[in-house]
Design brief:
This protein is α+β, with helices and mostly antiparallel strands. The chain has helices at 46-73, 78-93, 97-108, 156-164, 221-240, 243-252, 255-277, 287-293, 299-323, 367-384, and strands spanning 13-15, 33-42, 122-125, 130-133, 138-143, 146-153, 167-176, 179-189, 198-204, 208-212, 217-219, 280-285, 327-330, 355-357, 364-366. Strands 1, 2, 3, 4, 5, 6, 7 and 8 form an eight-stranded antiparallel beta sheet that branches. Strands 11-10-9-12-13 form a five-stranded mixed beta sheet. A two-stranded antiparallel ribbon has the order 14-15. A hairpin with a 2-residue loop joins β5 and β6 (146-153). α5 runs antiparallel to α7. The chain starts with 12 loop residues before the first strand and ends in a 32-residue tail after the last helix. The chain binds zinc ion (ZN). Zinc ion is lined by residues 339, 341-342, 344, 358, 360-361, 363.
Amino acid sequence: MQEYVTMVIAMNVLEENKNHSLTSEPCYNHSSMSTLSVKCKIVPDAITEEKLSRTAENFTEACNYALKVAKEKNIWNKFSLQRAIYKELREKFGLSANLAIQVIIRVAKRKGRRAKSFKSRSVTYDQRILSVNLDKEIVSLSTVNGRVKVPMHISDYQRRMLHEAKSIHGGHLVKKGNDWYIHLTCEYDTPSVIKPKGVLGVDLGIINIATDSDGETFSGKHLLSVRERYRRLRSRLQKKGTKSAKRLLKKISGRERRFANDVNHVISKRIVEKAQRTGRAIVLEDLKGIRNRVRLRKPQRTTMHSWAFRDLIQKIEYKAQRTGVPVVFVEPKNTSRTCPSCGHIEKANRPTQALFKCVACGYSGPADYIAAMNIAVRGWAAFIQPNAGAQSATCKPQTVIQFETDEILPGPPAFL
Ligand SMILES: [Zn+2]
């Protein structure tokens, strides 16, 4: 299962409107559109870059100016704010009508927070001041010095995402380091959510990145060895401390993340395709469980791991959404300690990282697989009694599952 394709996907898809509630009911979301932000690198020439820089600077300054006025006069309503400062924004900062409006919208959103000043030099564009030529792969943006056309550098994956989009609704221009990106807001038709015939439970971990309730495992060994290689390289370079070492350090930073990103793409794709093919919903532990799972001593590793988990969950969610596969989140408590055969819950049920062995009935099997089954059971219970919500769906597994206790890999219950 170690299909670690090193395709370069320099794209980042963020699903909007994400909320992981503990009691995530398997509600069928019938909204027919979904929005994704597709990040594309753009490569302006020197003159264009100058224009983009000036636009980003002016836009940020205008935001801070508008914020100051909003605070002083306590105006947070979009329309009142527009009446008060629109003209000034255009004259003072040379913004086009639409960019001035975007400033006002951004500032009005800060209401209620102890509004801090704007630091990031990003510019918000709506579809009237941003357009994309998909054939030529050029994005056209309005700046403080007129309209500019900038070529995009995109991968096949991004190309497909852009072509599949029903429409592109503006985006954000962002500068990161020396590179420029445009985060395009793409809208997609969402297929109606399927009514699942069963569920696929997925347990996330470190040794095994993901294990599903069919017993399929996605090993993390390769990923861990790659991380270890990066860690050694980093510490060598840090010790060296020379200028060239620092340059190299900077260069390799981000590579590790990109690699984990690629691995997650492969795994999430596989899981979602399987669920779709078999007409099942995907059940995952609530994020809180993931945080508890990541109990490592080194803080930087913890950060990397929890980032990778969140990223994998996000990828599963957006891929599922685009194929109509429902995703349910369940209460993570005791998923790795509960016996699927007799329901006994005890820490000692898991004598080692890899093994589950029930101290009450002797039932045993690979620990991650058992956890994935428990997750599936909870998810299915949430489907059967949706009003109870997933949190109270910690039904006693023995009421559903009948396993032979001497089997190593017991067959899953009928609904899985
Ligand atoms: Zn047991």
